[in-house]
Amino acid sequence: MIVWTHVLIRLTLAALFGAAIGLERERKNWAAGLRTHMLVCVGAALAMMVSAYGFMDILGKDNITLDPSRVAAQVISGIGFIGAGTILFLRQGIVRGLTTAAGLWTVAAIGLAAGGGMYFAASTATALAIIILWALQPLERKFSDRFKQKSLRISTVSEAKSLQIINEIFQGEKLNISSCSVDKTDGSYLITFSFKEIDKQLLAILINELQADPNVQEINWN
């Protein structure tokens, strides 16, 4: 049977590990912030201890066999429900919350390690998670901006106007268009252009011309 001092140490460390990762998420004002990560990590640590030590009083009796990993295993699958709640589908091609969901899954694993007494593994995973979430973000942005396709979304009030805009843009020079789509929603037409590359001065001219058109409702460049 585990002593109370070890219980205190493991739950406290789990709370600290979860807080370290949660602070990084809190800094960006995500829904899953400091308290969420702390609760997930502490809960996972407690589940690990219950799984390993919670059935000691009945072990050894006749016809009773237990797998101590079963409770802990359910934490990994169960955390998926919380992670799914942090994922938001904003619009076509734009999904937010995947990193937060992955962070919650990692925090649950860290909690299991802390609850199992694997302090070095839990602390190392916490340090690596902070490096991945915070320190590597500028590097990720640098590479993603270089290879990411740029998209221009234009909302118009009529089908005729959307066709006119499509013809004008396809006839333009120095526009390396990779794809084009038109969607009709709530009486308006959303045109989406994807570019492999585009001249910035030409883009500025194009957006100014579209803004001056009264039939254009919205312009979004990403």
TrEMBL record:
Signal peptide: none annotated. The keyword Membrane applies. The chain crosses the membrane at residues 6-24, 36-56, 71-90, 97-114. It is found in: Cell membrane. It comes from the Bacteria. InterPro entries: MgtC/SapB/SrpB/YhiD_fam, MgtC_SapB_SrpB_YhiD_N. It is a multi-pass membrane protein. One of its GO terms (cellular component) is plasma membrane. Pfam families: MgtC (PF02308). Residues 11-141 form the MgtC/SapB/SrpB/YhiD N-terminal domain. Keywords: Cell membrane, Membrane, Transmembrane, Transmembrane helix. Belongs to the MgtC/SapB family. This is Putative Mg2+ transporter-C (MgtC) family protein. It comes from Parapedobacter koreensis. The lineage of its organism: Bacteria, Pseudomonadati, Bacteroidota, Sphingobacteriia, Sphingobacteriales.
